[in-house]
Model the fold of this input.
Amino acid sequence: MSLDEIDRIAASLDRVLWVAFTGGEPFLRKDLPEFAGILHDRLRPVTLSINTNGIQTDKIVAATEQLLARCPDTFVGILCSLDGLQPTHDRIRGVPRNFERTIETFRALKKLRDHAPNLGVGITTTFCSWNQDEMDDMFELVVRDLKPDNWDLSFVRGQAMEPALELADVAKYRRIKSRLEQAYASGDLRYYSNMPLARFVHAKERLSTRTVLKTLETGSFQTPCYAGALSAVISEEGDVYPCELLNRKIGNLRDAGYNFKALWAADNARDTRTFVRESKCFCTHECNMSINLLFNPAAYPRIVAEMALEAAGNSLSSRPKSLPGLVPAPLAPQARATLTREADIRAPVRSPASRKS
Ligand code: SF4
Done:
């Protein structure tokens, strides 16, 4: 979509909390700083995040500098994708020297961060069967050496281009997430120390991790999903979906005259929200889980408890596996099938092999 089209869409929206650029590779857009600037001016997001494959160091750093100058009132989080040690990362990505270039980009962005109060620089990793046995070495690399503002470690989801990637071990995932929590609790890592409400946001992320783990371990619905109600995914062609995973297109913004609110109020959007709510749709999508907890008042006492636990140095390994669910609702029969019917999954979606940012 052109900048003019983006401006028209943004003009039809009110203020938003968070804008996330994912890929493909967002920095391939030469006009990314101006794109972000339009959203900054129109939507005033608190946070704007960008996932990058880190391949073009100079271009990424230059664009980030321009973007920061264009978005002075928004916290900008840049996450460099790192899916394993060098051989594994380059194998998953299919790009020779990708690992080396990503590390170089990460270090350059970190230098930039020293002079940019609204920039955070993190690492994002998709946990999968190919990298699950090198997580201890990844921990040394990321936590001890790279020291990012955040290590966003997500369990593989959706349909990977290589199905074997999806056969990841949940117990191994729980173990590395626990080590990560300990690193935050001990101060070895600091969660976006310059981000607004960082302590609260990190406590919510901890609760999100616990909820994702329970979803994985029980294969059942844990909390209502607000995708299609409080969040949306917009493709490069203007197609609107409730999330990255569910194969229910709400409409196209070009067809709707670039009027997001009109599309959001139309029957198709209402039907999608009804489907998500009544089917008790569930998945492990961390971004959506995070929103689901942030806007669910039932989660607040547990977020506050997480803040206290972090202060006390608690971790996943010292907590019972059977954590109480946020919504003790029985699993609707159709919910089990929600994300197992192939037709319902937009393929390929965020997975190590398909998420190239
Ligand atoms: S539960 Fe997952 S797949 Fe279902 S609507 Fe929410 S984010 Fe999408």
Q: What stands out?
A: The longest strand covers residues 119-127. The pocket of iron/sulfur cluster is lined by residues 225, 227, 242-243, 245-246, 276, 281-283, 285, 288, 339 (CB under 6 Å). The chain has 13 helices and eight strands.
